[in-house]
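Below is a complete specimen:
___
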Amino acid sequence: MHHELKALALTCTLKPSPAPSSSDLIASQVLGELRGHGVGGDSIRVVDFDVRPGVETDMGDGDQWPAIRARVLEADILLLSTPTWLGHPSSIAQRVLERLDAELSETDDEGRPSMYGKVAAVAVVGNEDGAHKIVADCFQALDDIGFTVPAQGCTYWNSEAMKPKDYNDLDEIPEAVAATNKALAANAAHLARVLKHDPYPPRK
């Protein structure tokens, strides 16, 4: 199938490859749904790279963020997938958002911030509560950076409170999660196409 759009999932698990990751699993499920809408894509497990702290596009000294950033710039849709730790997104997810903050001062030839025209979605998994707050925090940050959020642009799974269980260990995708993944993919692909063919107005 020809893929006219590209998606990139930044998986923000704390577990280096090849350890099984629930965040990686839900990201792959969303990418699978996106493929059904003509969107190609793959994922990057950010913890496998030496991403330095900072708010510049390149922190130097072996910083590997620039290679990831190049992939983000190529993508039409960014999926940020994070586990829940202590009710918050992972430290890796926070670092990704901090590094993306540098894009506020990067503009195209018409003065638009570099992430204008790109769609952002969020996936959250956890064996504790916190998904709604994590999505809210991530969406606000991504919107500030210049991404556009689609209707129902998030998916999540939380284990039952006080009964820890990993998404990775489920026998099948829960029906509600599968339906949410489908809606996220359909809306993100639609919005990405709209923005690709009718960009935001120039800022100059």
The radius of gyration is 16 Å. The longest helix spans residues 175-197. The first strand starts at residue 5 and ends at 11.
